[in-house]
Design goal:
It is a single chain. A hairpin with a 4-residue loop joins strand 7 and strand 8. The model has no long low-confidence stretch (mean pLDDT 96). The chain has no helices and 11 strands. Strands 2, 4, 5, 6, 9, 10 and 11 form a 7-stranded mixed beta sheet that branches. Strands 1-3-8-7 form a 4-stranded antiparallel beta sheet, with no helix packed on it. It is mostly beta strands and 111 residues long.
Length: 111
């Protein structure tokens, strides 16, 4: 059974940082592309960052230069380092691989 479990969300002031983690069981990240998505109420879920099985990364334009996606193959965990956070980054963030989704973790950016 595949499970993706996110952690690391929370409340942070504008300009602050958070690191999200996505720990997987039942699947080996190194063989698949992984993605971080986010969603706010009333809007579609959007892809924020992705990393391929080969380690190539891509980002939503609005987070380029601020967010970094990475992975630890030994820990079977994918990370999203979020820096210089803005109120517009407030959302529920989800980890995704193939047809599997995590439960989501809330990120709130507010003073």
């Amino acid at each position: 059974q595949v499970q993706l479990v996110e952690s690391g969300g929370g409340l942070v002031q504008p300009g602050g940082s958070l690191r999200l983690s996505c720990a997987a069981s039942g699947i080996l990240f190194s063989f698949y592309s992984m993605g971080w998505y986010r969603q706010v109420p009333g809007k579609q879920r959007e892809l924020v960052a992705a990393i391929t099985s080969g380690g190539s990364t891509s980002y939503l334009d609005s987070v380029k230069g601020r967010f970094i996606i990475s992975r630890d193959i030994a820990k079977n965990t994918v990370y999203l380092q979020m820096n210089s956070l803005k109120p517009d980054d407030t959302a529920v963030y989800y980890c995704h691989c193939m047809q599997y989704w995590g439960q989501g973790t809330q990120v709130s950016v507010s003073s």
